[in-house]
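Lab notebook: predicted structure, single chain.

Context: the supervisor wants predicted structures on file for every construct in the current expression panel, including those that have not yet been purified. This is the next one on the list. No modifications to the sequence; it matches the entry in the shared construct table.
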Amino acid sequence: MIDKRIRLFISDIDGCLSEPFTPFDLDGIQELRRLAVTHRSPTAPLFSICTGRAFGYVEAMVQAIGFDMPVLFEAGGAMYDPKMYTISWAPQVTHEHRHQISEILQHWEKNYLGDVKISIDYAKKTQASIVIRDSEKMETLLGEIKETIETTYSAMVVADTHVSIDVLPEHLSKENGILWLADEVGIPVDDIAYIGDSTGDIAAIKRVGLGIAPANASEAVRDAADYVCEGSHIDAVLEAFSLCTRNNGRQE
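Prediction complete. Output recorded below exactly as produced.
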């Protein structure tokens, strides 16, 4: 049961608005556009995104849904304002971090790039990211990368989903990104809902006023959430957004 007023609803992309390596649910995106933008109820929360994806992917999603709130990408590493068409970079990312990210990418190019099941995400500026389609290879590489980072790059941390591994500055996180966004738009974090599905979302889910998990989320994420949806992926986003809208109406 959702029992508090939510002014801003933030969604992850992968695992929530979309499913990795699967075509977009265009009907679901159109319905979200209707609920959050074109036919938005006066009691509906504002809508935004917080994702580990790079800018180009996020900009396309913003245009598809049609909202104009600032969004977070690269796991809180940067903020994009669709109204002003400006990008701000998180202060946690220093010149030294960028140098280390470049070194890590060079190491990956040398050791992993020939594998057809592995791809490097060169679009990201605040972290080194690698995408892996094979679960066994994912487990092997995760162990190798964690060992390398722990022994060589003490100011960096490793985060992972079921399809990707990210190496990022230790204070860069979706939780800190949402605090940054809350301050930017003038909405208390306790009035914010966030829906996410992977371990990298747990701190943010616990930090906001209403933490939400889709049915497809990992067990750890579901345990951390205040509300677990019956639906998966974008159906869960639509479910939770609609519940927040109805609850806001009851509290007026």
